[in-house]
From TrEMBL:
The chain crosses the membrane at residues 12-30, 36-56, 68-89, 95-119, 131-152, 158-181, 213-232, 252-269, 281-301, 374-392. Signal peptide: none annotated. It is found in: Cell membrane. This is Membrane protein. PROSITE patterns: MFS. GO terms for cellular component: plasma membrane. One of its GO terms (molecular function) is transmembrane transporter activity. It comes from Streptomyces katrae. Keywords: Cell membrane, Membrane, Transmembrane, Transmembrane helix, Transport. Residues 4-396 form the Major facilitator superfamily (MFS) profile domain.
Amino acid sequence: MGAAMRRIQAGNALTAFGIGFTVPFLYIYVAQVRGLGSMAATSAFVAFALGALIALPFTGRVIDRRGPVPVVMGAAVAASVGALSLGLSTGLVPILLSALALGAGQAVMQPALATMIVWCSTPSTRTRAFALQFFMQNLGLGIGGLAGGQIVDVSRPGSFTLLFGIEAVMFLVLAGVIATVRMPQAPSIKDALPKDPAQAAGGGWKRMLRHKAMVQLCLLGFVLFFACYGQFESGLAAFGTEAAGISPSTLGFALAANTGAIVVAQFVVLKLVEKRRRSRVIALVGLIWTVAWLIAGFSGLGHGSATMAAAAFVSTYALFGIGEAMLSPTLAPLVADLAPEGSVGQYNSAFALVKQMALALGPLGVPLGAGVPMLYVGIFVLVSLGIAGLALRLGRQLSPVQDNPSLLGGRVVAQGPAVAAKGAEQPAERVAV
């Protein structure tokens, strides 16, 4: 990695560490520590998601016009203010406003940081760069969660204020680190430019919606995020506790198994997938998650012992983690390689928006998971099989290099314009792949 990439990855890891301090404890903080009840805690989560949904549609164009560096810095400051005020708030309205600012800031950071990684990598090294980012995020979240658990005390509201204060400081550290990054020019795949002249007409969202491969990738991404991340702490947790009789402590072990599987398997998986077609890797993830849902169904049948049910449930989360480790070096680089010149920020923001929408709708699985558990599992078995089908269909829309960047070998790729840290445009140099 170059100096710029090292700083980006370091800032990303420190931010994840800070977020890990508060993510597991937000519900307890609002509902119990501040004594506002479960409805207020749920409203805080809604405000967090709403902040992301409001900010993301406007983020991409700003990134492409001003560059990702000032966007990351501004988002980090906004998130820092939101985190600190959340830790100091005692009433419902201040908590909701703080959650709104924190959610918007964190959401805007995602596509801006992704764009920085794109500009500091080539199509052939991008896979490894995004795998490292995902690894560092999960490692930071895990360590932060463990550290926060040693500090937090429900009987001492000040301990929660300390957690949110640490998170606020980590956001400011990110802003400081990113301020020192000097962005190079952005290598891109020449074939990523739309072949249909009509796709070049208009700008922003209109052009992207005419890009068939990107639309299909967004649809696939929505299904992936809804079927996995959207169910972790909602429908699947309800299924485990209601149908499989899983205790809260076992649910904690399951979440730890998910993070552990990612940390242990990330670079082993990377070696297996980085030279293979991305569409087929995503299809394989769909099949792995199909097995995961079948194992989850077994845990809820009640035919075995409680230990067997718990082991099956934990295995489900671990298999999801392996699938996530396969997706991290696949999805984000593919978004970047589909983006036309000058639209990387727009495409990253659109994909981040799709993810937030899937996460916001994830709790719709709770009534099924708790009330009709076997129907719930059956639906997501079919959804996972659908992921495999959608991935193979997407593969037919991709060029050979977009589907498998390792075909580039050591050849030079097209250079798209990047924006320096101060916002000055760099001259573009185009070389055919």
